UniProtKB/TrEMBL annotation:
SUPFAM superfamilies for this protein: CheY-like, P-loop containing nucleoside triphosphate hydrolases
4-aspartylphosphate carried by residues: D54
Protein name (database record): Sigma-54 dependent transcriptional regulator/response regulator
Organism: Christiangramia flava JLT2011
UniProt entry keywords in alphabetical sequence: ATP-binding, Nucleotide-binding, Phosphoprotein, Transcription, Transcription regulation, Two-component regulatory system
GO molecular function: ATP binding
KW Nucleus (keyword) present: no
Keyword Electron transport assigned: no
Location of the Response regulatory domain: 3-119
Domain Sigma-54 factor interaction: 141-370
């Protein structure tokens, strides 16, 4: 049921509006307030799906109510009610954040359409917020160790900028999670997040994959094709395992970063791009530079912000939290009851070196949940926890 607050100092208009709204939809619960102060008190203490607010009122006018509401409950849509002389003010309230305005005396169809549209928008905003929280939670790094707290702090500071980020660390530590978390918390979160695994693409195809190609650029180029950089426009491109990229592709990536433009393979035409670049590698790029496998100028372009993700053996205090997180998630995915791990089982898991890092731990937890008893013990870990 949609709960609507009507703030109007003229009792006759309140009665008309309540009657119209109540007859339109039995699921509308309309609450009344006789002036701005009374309305503001209800907004502070109750949750509403929509507020209809007169502009000219004693004690506290509608503009003041709107400004105060936007500070404490910014997601609540407000529709302003304007008299003939308040039209300019009503238009200005849209700039402050009002959803819309209706004039007195209210036109029936306009009123009802405005109310329906405002409630639909409120529901859409709420759903988007829920989805964003769900996505952010899926990509959140689990842990309270000093290293993970430092990474979380870095992400909070860096996410809302366009600074390029280089994420380093061994395989399986969660570098991809860092990249996704940076994107989801950024101002580009509504744009695309395009991932490229540079190690998985043959060197002769990497340039076409990144920058696209035109028809006839090479034997199998049967039509024009956009690349990953174009697909990531207004969003983020994540170049995973960038240490495996060929030198020729590195040169083109460097140009893209320097000039914010790319050209497709086989074309001289430049295409302007607006892309944030996050890169990741498990290699020591400084050593790769010394061995002439990686361009030093590209490294300095990418490594504006460096985030190093530690191996799991360096943050074993996070293992209990990771086990709890994985066991809940796996039980949900498998459609089975969640299983508890004994203290001895956790202790046993903390003794391992975890050469495969967090990825390996997740696999072991899944194996234990599927094959272990109703409670996972240290004996289960001995029996099923081996990585071989």
């Amino acid at each position: 049921m949609a709960k609507i607050l009507l703030i109007e100092d003229e009792a006759s208009i309140r009665r008309v509006l309540v009657k119209i709204l109540s007859e339109e939809n039995k699921d509308y619960e309309v609450v009344e307030a006789e002036d701005g102060l009374a309305g503001m008190e209800r907004i502070k203490n109750e949750d509403f799906d929509l507020v209809l607010c007169d502009i000219k009122m004693p004690k506290m006018d509608g503009v003041e109510v709107l400004e105060a509401t936007k500070k404490i409950k910014p997601d609540v849509p407000m529709v302003m009610i304007s008299g003939h002389g308040d039209l300019d003010t009503a238009v200005n309230t849209m700039k402050i954040g009002a959803f819309d305005y209706i004039s007195k005396p209210p036109d029936l169809n306009r009123l009802l359409n405005t109310v329906r549209n405002a409630l639909d928008r409120k529901e859409l905003v709420a759903e988007n917020t829920r989805l964003k929280k769900k996505v952010s939670k899926n990509y959140e790094m689990i842990g309270e160790s000093e290293a993970i707290v430092h990474i979380k702090d870095m992400i909070e500071k860096v996410a809302h900028t366009d600074a390029r980020v280089l994420v380093t660390g061994p395989n399986g530590t969660g570098k991809e999670l860092v990249a996704h978390w940076l994107h989801q918390k950024s101002d580009r979160s509504k744009g695309p997040m395009i991932e490229v695994n540079c190690a998985a693409i043959p060197s002769e195809l990497i340039e076409s994959e990144l920058f696209g190609h035109v028809k006839g650029a090479f034997t199998s180029a049967n039509k024009d094709r956009a690349g990953k950089f174009e697909a990531a426009n207004k969003g983020t491109i994540f170049l995973d395992e960038i240490g495996d990229m060929s030198l020729s592709a590195q040169a083109k990536v460097l140009r893209a970063l320097q000039e914010n433009r790319i050209s497709r393979v086989g074309s001289d035409k430049d295409i302007k791009i607006d892309v944030r670049v996050i890169a990741a590698t498990n290699k020591d790029l400084k050593k790769e530079i010394e061995d002439n496998n990686f361009r030093e100028d590209l490294y300095h372009r990418l490594a504006v912000i460096l985030i190093e993700v530690p191996a799991l053996k360096e943050r074993k205090e996070d293992i209990p939290l990771l086990v709890d997180h994985f066991s809940k998630k796996i039980a949900q995915e498998q459609g089975i009851n969640e299983k508890q791990f004994t203290k001895e089982a956790i202790d046993k898991l903390q003794e391992s070196e975890w050469r495969g890092n967090v990825r390996e731990l997740r696999n072991v937890v899944e194996r234990l949940i599927i094959l272990g008893g109703t409670e996972i013990t240290d004996e289960d870990v001995e029996l099923f926890g081996s990585r071989f």
